[in-house]
Automatic annotation (TrEMBL):
<dbReference type="InterPro" id="IPR050595">
    <property type="entry name" value="Bact_response_regulator"/>
</dbReference>
<dbReference type="InterPro" id="IPR011006">
    <property type="entry name" value="CheY-like_superfamily"/>
</dbReference>
<feature type="domain" description="Response regulatory">
    <location>
        <begin position="10"/>
        <end position="123"/>
    </location>
</feature>
<dbReference type="GO" id="GO:0000160">
    <property type="term" value="P:phosphorelay signal transduction system"/>
</dbReference>
<keyword id="KW-0597">Phosphoprotein</keyword>
<feature type="modified residue" description="4-aspartylphosphate">
    <location>
        <position position="60"/>
    </location>
</feature>
<dbReference type="InterPro" id="IPR001789">
    <property type="entry name" value="Sig_transdc_resp-reg_receiver"/>
</dbReference>
<dbReference type="Pfam" id="PF00072">
    <property type="entry name" value="Response_reg"/>
</dbReference>
<protein>
    <submittedName>
        <fullName>Response regulator receiver domain-containing protein</fullName>
    </submittedName>
</protein>
């Protein structure tokens, strides 16, 4: 089970669309994760600072605020290694060079089960 792989770890879901965010929160809670969420990169940074057990961040790219999800991924990658980063978008398709180290990109719409499987495969690195 995922919660056994990431003992004591939490996942942060960052998306400005409430329905998408809440569905992902429910999915990952059902999968055994402790889940936190934020509606913007700015809010995500506050959550990251307050929760040192976050080891996985799933973020959308297009969001309002001072930075988008790609900049958020770089911020987190620089300050909170070895956090596993998953960046998602249905519009923007960043190149491998644009993504921070230890980052996966998924195109929207995506199946959360596929994201969970990718997290489980990456568990030794996270």
């Amino acid at each position: 089970m995922a919660s056994e792989i990431f003992t004591e770890a939490a996942i942060l879901i960052v998306d400005d669309e409430p329905i998408i965010r809440f569905d992902l929160v429910d999915f990952f809670e059902d999968a055994g994760f402790r889940v936190l969420d934020a509606e913007s990169a700015d809010a995500a940074i506050v959550v990251m600072n307050a929760n040192p057990t976050i080891r996985i961040v799933l973020t959308d790219i297009q969001m309002p605020g001072s930075m988008d999800g790609l900049k958020l991924a770089h911020y987190i990658g620089d300050r909170y290694p070895p956090t596993l980063l998953i960046v998602a978008s249905g519009i923007v398709k960043p190149t491998a060079q644009e993504l921070p180290i230890n980052t996966m990109f998924v195109s929207k719409p995506y199946n959360p089960r596929q994201v969970l499987a990718a997290i489980q495969r990456a568990a030794p690195a996270a």
